[in-house]
Structures are given as structure tokens and as C-alpha cells.
Automatic annotation (TrEMBL):
Ranges where the DUF418 domain occurs: 324-417
Entry keywords, A to Z: Membrane, Transmembrane, Transmembrane helix
Disordered: annotated segments: 261-280
Name of the protein this chain belongs to: Membrane protein YeiB
Transmembrane domains' residue ranges: 37-58, 73-91, 103-121, 127-146, 153-172, 192-213, 225-242, 318-336, 343-368, 388-407
Key word Cell division present: no
Domain of life of the native organism: Bacteria
Residue stretches making up the Heparan-alpha-glucosaminide N-acetyltransferase catalytic domain: 31-220
Length: 434
């Protein structure tokens, strides 16, 4: 004889069953769970770079985990962003006609919201190089590319990756940009778009490459395996030739090694012209050719444009770290099948990247800088283990919060905001006459 159950017991049983069913169904087709997992890894990697996980090392001869996440996490994020754009605009079929018009309008709506959100996060003054503003600009730039073929996207990405850094570096070198003279092409807009933490010459080809990948049948294991293998090959090619070209040993693993034109010019003997020096406050009486003769513009351009270290913005970094990102995406797509249930929390974080990234930046601003309610949680000069534990705490908090939200509410709150803005922008052409 079965005992009668109370309404509370029935509600609890229904909640347990519902939670279990949602866990079981999360990330099922047509959604590509492996892409969400890769995006979640990118977010956690960027958080690790921000918090400085310097204590997590494999030994004196092994790879430094902090160096692995430096630069490569944001590049993985860029590649996955391109895949997401392709998935949202037709998957394997490029949009045409009305579908293309709708995709372009929605992309513009997303771009404006992401840009506004990124600017708001920068105003917090956390000291983090917020990645969202450049993504807002990138989404606007991508609008003309939405209807291109997969091959055209791949060739355009390759051309920009090879030629872009060299052209920009050469222009900055021959104009002595960054040396505090009027004819330099430097400036706030140029620094933000071309020589900042996230230059377009790096991020645009990576996003375009991601769009080309998103047009493939990523739901097929064979495609994922080819992506993994080709990514490993590209990484070995880019990092290997990058080390040979620059005369370094594991230069791709040496932390943040940005080589700006200013530093290149300074090392060439014109440090007195750099901003902040007394001579930079008055015009230089020497002719342009006299100033140019004191530097090596071709050498400065090559050292910057063909760098391999993280955040150098060089072609070898784009090829090597881009291959690394391809391999990670391929591995995640393969792992999402047999380990789907275990990867649900990580995929939940990846399903709401704006929400997770914003939560991290806000918490960093409150706890570390500038409010500094608990500055000891992250330490670069003191106990190095503090940063590692802070990173683990951030990861655990996001895993719990995002999983709970995804299974109970679905789409993340900021993702809903962006989707709503895109929907409002994409109105029928005749709606304005009503």
C-alpha cells in the first residue's frame, strides 16, 4: 500500500525530476555543445590571465599554465565568436536575400549593445583590458562579410593575418609613430583599433576564420577530428617558424610579450623622442629623413609584425595561436559526445559568455581594483598562491551560478538583452508604415 504524498513532497519530486531532465537535455542538437565548452574554457582562461595564476606550473621544464592562458584564451574566444556568428546566420548555408538583410540588421543591433556594455565595463576602472568594445566594432565590420562564401572568408582571413600586421607595423615605423612627432599615424583611434590590446589586424582574421569554420558540418565527428589535427599542425607551424624567425626558444610561451612600435623605436636610439621625455614636448628641428636615418624602420616593422609571443600581434602568433584555438574547438566537439553529462556546467558558462565575463569584471572591480574590498585575493607581488585560489573561486562561482541559471531560466540575462535588441532592430520593411 502506497502512502499518500503531500503537496510539498510532490513539488520537490517534480523539481528533482525537472532538474534532472533539464541536465539531460541541455546542449542537445541543434545546439553544438562542444562550441559552448570551448567558449567556457576561453572565459576561464581570460579570467586566469586577469588574476595572474602564476603558481600553477608544471615544473621548470614544463609549460607554465599562466603563460598558456595568456593571449591564447582571448584568441580562442575570437575564433569561437566567429563560429557563433556563422551559426546564428545560417550555419552551413550563407544567408541570402531577406535572410541576409535580417542577419545584417541583427548583427548591427548586437554590435551596439556589446559596444555599450564594454564601454560601461571600462568605466569601472578595473585595470582589465576589456575585450567587449573591440567586439562591438568587429560585429559592425563583419556586416559586409555575412553573405560571403566559406572559401572567401578563409582566404580573406589568411590575407589579413599575413599582410595586416606587416603593413600596419611598417606604416608606424616609417612615420615614427609613437615617437611623439606630428607625422606619426598614432592617435587614440589608431591605438585602439590597430595597436591596442586587441588590434583588428589580429582579431578580424581570427573571427573571419571562425565564421569559415562555422559554415562546416561541425556536428560530424570526422569534421571535429580534422579540425583538431589541422589545428595542431597550424600551431606547430606557426610557433616553430615563429621561434626560428625571432631566434627564441618557446617564445610563444613567454607571457605577455607585446612589441610596440614605441619600444622598437626606443631600442633603435630615439628614446628622447618618446612621449613623456622633455624633448617630446617641443618640435624636432631635424628633418624627417634625419630622424628616419636614426632608426631601422624595416627591422622595427618585422620585429613587431612577425612576433610570436602572446599579445605581440604578429603573424606567427596569429597562425600559432589560431591553430591552438582550432585544436581546442575540435577537441571540445569530440569530447562533448562521450562526456556530455560531465561538461554541462562548463557548457552552461559558455552558453552565456556576456553574462559570465561581465560578472567577472564587476567582481574584480569590487574586490580587487578600484574598490579593493579584498585586494589580498589576487597577488602578483606577494603570495603567488593567492591568485590561483582566487581564480579557482571565480571558476567555481561561475560554474554554479551559470549552471543554475541555464537549467532553470535558459538564456543568460545579458544574452537576452542582446537578443532583444537584435530583434527590435530587425523589423519588417513595411512595419514603419503601420
Amino acid at each position: 500500500m502506497s502512502l499518500p504524498t503531500t503537496p510539498i513532497a510532490r513539488a520537490l519530486e517534480s523539481t528533482r525530476r525537472s532538474f534532472r531532465d533539464r541536465w539531460h537535455d541541455f546542449g542537445r542538437p541543434p545546439r553544438l555543445m562542444g562550441v559552448d565548452v570551448a567558449r567556457g574554457l576561453a572565459i576561464f582562461g581570460m579570467i586566469g590571465a586577469h588574476t595572474g595564476i602564476v603558481w600553477m606550473v608544471a615544473g621548470p621544464d614544463g609549460p607554465d599554465l599562466a603563460a598558456i592562458v595568456q593571449g591564447r584564451s582571448s584568441i580562442l574566444f575570437a575564433v569561437v565568436a566567429g563560429i557563433s556568428v556563422a551559426l546564428a546566420t545560417g550555419r552551413g548555408q550563407r544567408p541570402r536575400g531577406e535572410a541576409l538583410r535580417s542577419a545584417r540588421l541583427r548583427m548591427a543591433g548586437r554590435a551596439l549593445v556589446v559596444l555599450a556594455l564594454g564601454l560601461a565595463l571600462e568605466m569601472l576602472g578595473s585595470g582589465i583590458a576589456v575585450i567587449l568594445p573591440i567586439y562591438g566594432i568587429l560585429f559592425l565590420i563583419l556586416i559586409p562579410f555575412l553573405g560571403l562564401r566559406r572559401r572567401t572568408l578563409a582566404l580573406t582571413a589568411a590575407a589579413i593575418a599575413v599582410a595586416g600586421p606587416t603593413v600596419v607595423a611598417l606604416l608606424r615605423a616609417v612615420t615614427l609613430s609613437g615617437a611623439g612627432i606630428p607625422q606619426g599615424i598614432g592617435g587614440t583611434a589608431v591605438d585602439f583599433l590597430l595597436s591596442g590590446s586587441y588590434p583588428l589586424t589580429v582579431w578580424l582574421p581570427l573571427v573571419l576564420a571562425g565564421m569559415a569554420l562555422g559554415r562546416l558540418r561541425l556536428d560530424r565527428p570526422r569534421t571535429a577530428a580534422v579540425l583538431l589535427g589541422s589545428g595542431v599542425g597550424l600551431a606547430a607551424f606557426g610557433y616553430g617558424l615563429g621561434d626560428a624567425f625571432n631566434g627564441t626558444v618557446r617564445g610563444w610561451l613567454t607571457g605577455s610579450g607585446s612589441v610596440s612600435s614605441s619600444s622598437a623605436l626606443s631600442s633603435s636610439g630615439v628614446s628622447s623622442l618618446l612621449p613623456g621625455s622633455s624633448s617630446s614636448m617641443r618640435p624636432d628641428a631635424r628633418s624627417y629623413l634625419e630622424q628616419l636615418s636614426e632608426v631601422d624602420p624595416l627591422g622595427a616593422a618585422l620585429s613587431q609584425a612577425w612576433g610570436v609571443t602572446p599579445h605581440s600581434g604578429g603573424t606567427w602568433e596569429i597562425i600559432g595561436s589560431g591553430g591552438f584555438a582550432f585544436a581546442v574547438v575540435g577537441a571540445c566537439l569530440l569530447a562533448a559526445r562521450p562526456f556530455r553529462a560531465l561538461l554541462v556546467p562548463l557548457a552552461a558558462v559558455g552558453s552565456m559568455p556576456l553574462t559570465a565575463y561581465t560578472a567577472h569584471v564587476v567582481s574584480f572591480a569590487v574586490l580587487i581594483s578600484p574598490l579593493a574590498l579584498a585586494p589580498g585575493l589576487a597577488s602578483w607581488d606577494g603570495d603567488p598562491a593567492a591568485s590561483g585560489w582566487f581564480w579557482i573561486g571565480c571558476v567555481a562561482a561561475l560554474l554554479a551560478a551559470c549552471t543554475t541559471w541555464a537549467l532553470s531560466r535558459g538564456r543568460g540575462p545579458l544574452e537576452s538583452l542582446v537578443a532583444g535588441a537584435a530583434h527590435r532592430v530587425d523589423r519588417p520593411a513595411d512595419s514603419g508604415a503601420r
